[in-house]
Specification:
Layout: E1 5-8, H1 12-23, E2 29-32, H2 37-40, E3 46-50, H3 51-54, H4 58-70, E4 74-78, H5 88-93, E5 98-99, H6 102-115, E6 124-129, E7 136-140, E8 145-148, E9 161-166, E10 172-177, E11 182-186, H7 187-194, H8 207-220, H9 225-232, H10 236-243, H11 251-261, H12 265-269
Parallel strand pairs: 1-2, 1-3, 3-4, 4-5
Antiparallel strand pairs: 6-7, 7-8, 9-10, 10-11
Helix pairs in contact: 1-6
Length: 274
């Protein structure tokens, strides 16, 4: 199914901002007035609610976003910069997709298009050596991450891995060994190990552990949540949700947080105690 978005607004400037951002990802959109809420979610992937344009008070906003969520679409809130610290329940309803700047709009438009890729969990996005130990770290298109101990397959002789190349199909990674040999990590083996119970396969990264790790790294860097929010453009309540393990961020969001803290994404994903 192709992504499609309704813009619930009467303000042409706001509508044009979203049209431009969504158009870059070939995501079609339609514009309807706030009074037409009943038809806004019909067949759509997401609905952008222009909070200021509709002049919604807090109760009306909760009601609107809740209705959209209950109707099976993803609600997105568009509101003023000055209202950036939205209450936690708004961020929860919108999965953290709250826009107050043009940068937010561009990021959310890309996220909407990405979420529509139902097969992104079947795509290797990034494969590298673990920064701790000899494991191989694999990150999938949906942000799932896993560690794979060696040997990777029957062809892995244990010698140093000199290069890793992801196949154009994104379903396998070819690992070149110092011995001249080659081994492969396939998307099938990633999912097979993930489903093993208490086995010796990969180690899934769960939201609670990831959140605790991010909080420790932020504190080690001497940053407050407010400062991290300023550096990343991510609303502080959303950062709090991630650190509390109540929301697992996308790979894109994780990379933004890691960069703002001053560490690599792999450093965040892999614990020093592993």
């Amino acid at each position: 199914m192709t992504s499609s978005v309704t813009l619930l607004t009467e303000r042409e400037r706001v509508a044009q901002q979203w049209r431009d951002a969504l158009g870059k990802h070939d995501v079609p959109c339609k514009v309807v007035p706030p009074s037409d809420l009943a038809n806004a979610s019909d067949g759509q992937t997401a609905v952008v609610v222009d909070v200021d344009g509709a002049q919604l008070d807090s109760d009306e906003l909760l009601c609107t976003l809740g209705y959209l969520r209950a109707s099976g679409v993803l609600p997105i809130a568009h509101l003023k910069q000055s209202q950036g610290d939205v209450e936690d329940i708004i961020a929860e309803l919108c999965d953290g997709l709250v826009a107050s700047t043009e940068g937010d709009i561009a990021r959310i438009a890309a996220a909407v298009a990405r979420r529509d890729d139902r097969r992104r969990h079947l795509r290797l996005e990034f494969v590298t050596l673990s920064p701790c130990g000899d494991d191989v770290l694999a990150i999938l298109g949906n942000g799932d991450a896993s560690l794979h101990p060696r040997p990777i397959d029957a062809s892995d002789d244990g010698s140093e891995i000199t290069s890793i190349t992801i196949d154009p199909s994104a379903t396998r990674a070819v690992l070149q060994l110092a011995s001249g040999g080659v081994c492969q990590l396939t998307i099938a083996s990633v999912h097979a190990s993930s489903s093993a119970t208490n086995g010796q396969g990969d180690i899934a990264i769960d939201g609670e552990r990831l959140g605790a790790r991010l909080r420790k790294l932020r504190l080690d860097a001497g940053l407050t949540q407010a400062e991290l929010a300023r550096r990343t453009g991510i609303h502080r309540p959303n950062i709090a949700r991630v650190e509390a393990g109540r929301h697992t961020p996308s790979l894109e969001t994780l990379a933004r947080i890691a960069n703002a803290i001053g560490v690599s994404t792999t450093h965040v994903l892999v614990s020093h105690e592993s």
